[in-house]
Amino acid sequence: MIEKEIKKIDKSNMRDLLIKFGEHCISGYSLLPSFIPENIKFNKIIYCGMGGSAISGDILKFIVEKHSHIPFAISRDYDIPSFADNETIVFITSYSGNTEETISTFTQAIEKKANTFIISSNGELEKLSVEKNLPFIKIPSGMPPRCAFGYLFFASYRILQQFGLLPEIEKKLFQKIDEIVKSFSETENNYAITIAKKIHNKVPILYSDNFIFGCLLRWKTQIAENSKAFSFINVFPEMNHNEIMSFHFPVWFLKKIICLFFIHNEENNRTKKRFEITEKIIQGKGIETLKVEGKGNSLIEKMLYFVILGDWVSYYLSLLNKIDPTEIKEIIYLKDQLKGGKFE
């Protein structure tokens, strides 16, 4: 696709934000809260957010679980989990700072005297952080929340690193991120474009093991918002106990799907075997499959590879669909209709 056609579709220049992903990551990692309270004791973590603000928590959860024994929960709702208390770290993340569900969880976190950290670009949450004298990280405004992943993820990571929960990020990871972004942005027929063409006018079904489920969720939400298209996700081994029986009906739907298997090569050996057998079963139904392998020398590198790849795939798919990747008129309409209502 030529540059002129791209600019005609990508009216808000999302491509530029995707290219600057590495810069966002470095900047996010350099950010620290306005202050860190002394003598914090915690034995659990809750990450509160919606949409693009929550995805960072999904990825972070699996990294924390790999490096520690601290339970990590995600809250995508108006209510915080009931087990929150004064020995809980609660991340309150809202790119705009005005997400009503997240403001509700903020109120509950304060009531439970949780160790609360707020990450936002501005809005009501920034005002509340000053009012309540709470640690606050301010990230740059002016972009779609889903494009702020680099800031949100690495700012959250840095806080947990400060508590000794996660290892320091080495400079070479950021160099690798830049290499990955470059590989998907500069070549005419790169891997992201190849996948976008494969799934264009089809319904992608995305499968992985539980450990990288957050990466699949990122793909699903990016395909929804950027490409304005459906996709479905599930994990092994659970998929083998139910969904594997779905590949019979409706026949018209089976003709429209393509199954993508996400591999990071650190799966349980029995899960690897399940992948192989399931792929044969699906192919036997005449359904196309595609293996998507995470590249990198560490799990965090592979997870970020999947995130970056998914962002670019959804971007190129939006171009193939001839629809602006930034535009989200249905979400805006919904929020407008909710204005003035009360929530508890």
CATH architecture of the largest domain: 3-Layer(aba) Sandwich
Order the strands across the largest sheet as they lie in space.
2-1-3-4-5
Which class do the helix and strand fractions yield?
alpha/beta
CATH homologous superfamily caption of the largest domain:
Glucose-6-phosphate isomerase like protein, domain 1
Order of helices and strands: HHHEHEEHEHEHHHEHEHEHEHH
Largest sheet: 5 strands, parallel
The outline comes out as globular
The proportion of residues in beta strands is: 5-15%
Number of helices: 14
> End-to-end distance, in Å?
49 Å
Q: Uncertain runs with pLDDT below 50, 5 residues or more?
A: none
The overall pLDDT, averaged over residues, is 95
Percent of residues in helices: 40-55%
By DSSP, the count of extended strands is: 9
Provide an overview of this structure:
The protein has about 350 residues and is α/β, with parallel strands linked by helices. The protein contains 14 helices and nine strands. It has a five-stranded parallel sheet, sandwiched between helices. The protein has a four-stranded parallel sheet with strand order 7-6-8-9, with helices on both faces. The longest helix has 22 residues, at about 300-320. The chain is globular, with a radius of gyration of 20 Å. The model has no long low-confidence stretch (mean pLDDT about 95).
